[in-house]
Amino acid sequence: MSSMYGGSAFLSAGSSCFSSKSQALLAPAPFSASRPASSLSCSAANAAPRAASSSRIVAVSGSMEMGMPAPYGAAASGLSSRSYGVPQQLDTTDLYDSNLSRGAIEAKKGNPPVMPAVMTPGGPLDLSSVLFRNRIIFVGQPVNSQVAQQVISQLVTLATIDEDADILMYLNCPGGSTYSVLAIYDCMSWIKPKVGTVCFGVAASQGALLLAGGEKGMRYSMPNARIMIHQPQSGCGGHVEDVRRQVNEAVQSRHKIDKMYAAFTGQPLEKVQQYTERDRFLSVSEAMEFGLIDGVLETEY
User: Can you tell me which residues form the catalytic site (predicted)?
Assistant: First the structure.
């Protein structure tokens, strides 16, 4: 059964005029008198005035097979797209226009990816919830404003829940924004719970600053981790006066971070400046000797 309402044509799956594999509706050529009578019987019986500028959405349900035009397939054979029982919508400028546009066929997503979870008596919990309940924060990416906001919100929330219980921060961090890292460190220093740090993999650049900024006596590293410290990096651009001010800001940031490293490690400021002049990679034993960490968590290998 076919009917027209407001310029939209709705075709039922059980229509006798249009079968599930009918090419009359989906062929790129317009309807004409040379087409078989079976293909035109329903449209002729229910023809209605059509405006050339009207836009129609054809809803098709059931099994459908369609030839895909180039460049998606060969002009002779083409590729086929099948769907079973899933309604599809094809946007057309004019259903009977010779320049018929089929529109893009969007792939329907199936089940969303399943996040890793841990089974508990109360039901499954995702890993982030399990870590949060155990007062563990994991930083495994470069620190930007979004990462800093997430870490700070976790720190403040855990401090609100229990201000006497310690917090453990795992780091596998290649660095990030100086301002974002300093914001996290300020929060670590401001809340009452002690925040311990553990390095997995690498703690480089500002990630090393977070590692060294943990509670003294609670800064650890895995035996195969690497730690790298250096002076802050900055890019300048714009007018000459703007460049001068940006350079001054970068110099002040370097002095601030060098003083922080000197306070964290107990090393003289001159030695810290020598270490941060260029990229300085340290093993866990060298980092512990320098004062960046307090111990190494031994493993079997």
Answer: 230
Q: 65 and 201 share a domain?
A: no
Q: Give the pLDDT score at 59.
A: 42
User: Does the residue 97 lie in any domain?
Assistant: no
Is the separation of the CB atoms in 104 and 90 below 8 Å? no
Rg (CA), the chain: 33
CA 21 to chain centre: 40
Boundaries of domain holding 261: 118-296
Candidates 187, 135, 125; CA nearest to 162 is 135
Catalytic residues: 230
pLDDT value for 199: 97
Torsional sign, CA 285, 287, 293, 299: negative
Task: Report the alpha-carbon distance of residue 2 to residue 293 in Å, rounded.
Answer: 76
- When divided into structural domains, the chain yields a total of 2
Query: pLDDT value at position 73?
Result: 43
Output the pTM of the full model: 0.60
Structure-token match 């899933």, residue found? 86
d(C-alpha 297, C-alpha 285), whole Å: 11
- Return the number of other C-beta atoms located less than 10 Å from residue 260's C-beta: 16
> Which H, E and C letters describe 265-296, residue by residue?
HCCCHHHHHHHCCCCEEECHHHHHHHCCCCEE
216 and 123 within one domain: yes
Query: What is each CA distance from 293 to 119, 219, 255, in whole angstroms?
Result: 35, 5, 21
The reported pLDDT for the residue numbered 198 is: 96
User: Block means of pLDDT (10 residues each) for the chain, length 301 residues?
Assistant: 42 43 45 44 45 43 43 43 45 50 51 60 73 90 94 95 95 94 96 96 95 96 95 84 91 94 96 94 96 88 54
Q: Indicate if 269 and 174 belong to the same structural domain.
A: yes
Residue 18 has a pLDDT of: 42
Residue pair 83/72 in contact (Cβ under 8 Å)? The answer is no
